[in-house]
Write a structure and sequence with these properties.
By secondary structure, this protein is an alpha+beta fold. The protein has 2 domains: about 1-170 and about 395-415, Nucleotidyltransferase, domain 5, CATH 3.30.420; about 215-335, no CATH class. The protein contains 13 helices and 18 strands. It has helices at about 50-60, 90-110, 130-145, 155-165, 195, 215-230, 250-255, 265-275, 280-290, 295-315, 335-360, 380-385, 400-415; strands at about 1-10, 10-20, 20-25, 35, 40, 50, 65, 80-85, 85-90, 115-120, 150-155, 175-180, 185-190, 205-210, 315-320, 330, 365-370, 390-395. A hairpin with a 2-residue loop joins strand 8 and strand 9. Helix 6 (about 215-230) packs across helix 10 (about 295-315). It is globular and about 70 Å long. The two termini are about 15 Å apart. The mean pLDDT is about 95.
Length: about 425
């Protein structure tokens, strides 16, 4: 039996083991150390996970794609059921099937059964709701046990990232760890050193912990609502001029965890009724096309791709030719900031909360360690750096630092 560190993320998942003296992430999909947190249910066949799940959906294979599975933890959706083919299964069981597949792949890759796991968790699954936060952790613990982990414990994701970063620290320092992921943004202020790295109990070295339920999928949602959904009728008037087209369809279509709610005959009938009374019925025709073809996830992927392209190259586009010939939405860096700057400010505000909690001034922070995919957004990065302007900025493994740190913690706890 062996212990592992499992980073079940909103967008991607990693699993690590200690091989010899060093922690190592396990290839979970071909040579890839990360696997997208996605599952595809094809009627009459075993579920696909990761890139294979997303490819099956994009290729038009009949079935049901579910992504951003972690986002339902701490919400009422966890215990609700969702239609998959001819059956209905709980979202809790969907997560279980996905994590069971990840566990099985790791066991096959290493030839070792896994019975102990240190699960990563955000500082807050749910903002401002300690009871909901506890329920989310309890649910994840129960799911882990249901798939064969006999021993389950948790570590905050930014603390795990700190353990990974500490391996390169040459002398004592105080570090602010910023883990800006797909679903949450988490911060810790930690005292680090080579000598402290060997200690089993690090409780006294953790000076502050805070977080907020904002991540990359929230940026995708804001971009979709601001640049794409108006092309489908969002914000346009009904024939009765004092009313706009109902916005709920667009909010669901822009939110990864809610897209599947739209794929039913009732919604299509409602959209047809709204179309009849809309001043711009041709826009509702586009909405109907997306829902009828169950291509909402394709739309979300296009928006996510445009966000990444704009972050890296300054401009990107959402190609909607599959909806209507010649239809597209363009995005540049100024637009990215316009639609999402409020989110970056809310994330950066957590730095001041952490400093206050630790009783430190900003100039007491020696290093700012960045991990998580959303640290690649230029205005997010700039907001974080501005919070501790004198700190040395260190870029971690974007998708692997948390998983590596959880693996270090798993080895300690199993020793």
């Amino acid at each position: 039996m062996a212990a592992c560190g499992l980073d079940f993320g909103t967008s991607n998942t990693t699993l690590g083991l200690v091989a010899g003296p060093h922690p190592a992430l396990v290839p979970l999909e071909g040579d890839h150390l990360t696997i997208p947190s996605a599952i595809f249910f094809e009627p009459g066949r075993d579920a696909l996970v990761g890139r294979a799940a997303m490819a099956a959906y994009v290729e038009g294979t009949p079935g049901r794609l579910m992504r951003s599975l972690k986002s339902v933890l701490g919400s009422s959706l966890l215990e609700e059921t969702t239609p998959v083919g001819r059956e209905r299964i709980r979202f809790r069981d969907v997560i279980g099937r996905y994590l069971a597949a990840v566990k099985a792949r790791a066991e096959a890759a290493t030839g070792r059964p896994l019975d102990t796991v240190v699960h990563g968790r955000p500082v807050h699954f749910v903002d401002g709701d300690p009871e909901g936060d506890a329920r989310a952790e309890d649910a994840l613990r129960e799911i882990a046990r249901s798939i064969g982990f006999a021993h389950v414990s948790f570590q905050f994701e930014p603390i795990a990232a700190a353990l990974d970063y500490e391996r390169q620290v040459a002398r004592e320092e105080v570090a602010l760890i910023a883990d800006i992921g797909g679903g949450t943004s988490d911060f810790s202020i930690v005292r680090l050193s080579p000598e402290r790295h060997a200690k089993a109990d690090r409780g006294g070295d953790i000076l502050a912990n805070d977080g907020v339920r904002i991540g990359g999928t929230d940026f995708d949602r804001r971009l979709s609502l601001g640049t794409v959904m108006p092309l489908f009728g969002l914000g346009t008037p009904m024939k009765r001029g004092d009313l706009d087209v109902p916005s709920s369809y667009f909010h669901d279509l822009a939110t990864w965890s809610s897209i599947n709610r739209l794929y039913n005959a009732k919604t299509l009938r409602e959209v047809e009724e709204v179309r009849r009374d809309a001043q711009r019925p041709e826009l509702l025709d586009r909405l109907y096309t997306v829902i009828e073809a169950e291509r909402g996830h394709s739309l979300a992927m296009e928006v996510e791709g445009a966000k990444i392209a704009t972050s890296e190259a300054g401009a990107g586009g959402v190609d909607l030719d599959w909806v209507e010939r010649g239809l597209s939405a363009d995005l540049d860096r100024a637009g990215l900031v316009t639609h999402t700057d409020e989110l970056s400010r809310r994330i950066a505000e957590r730095i001041d909360r952490c400093l206050s909690q630790a009783g430190l001034r900003a100039d007491a922070i020696d290093a700012l360690f960045l991990t998580g995919g959303s640290t690649g957004l230029p205005h997010v990065r700039a907001a974080l750096v501005a919070g501790v302007p004198n700190a040395r900025v260190v870029d971690g493994d974007t998708f692997g630092s948390v998983g590596t740190g959880l693996t270090i913690e798993a080895a300690r706890r199993a020793a």
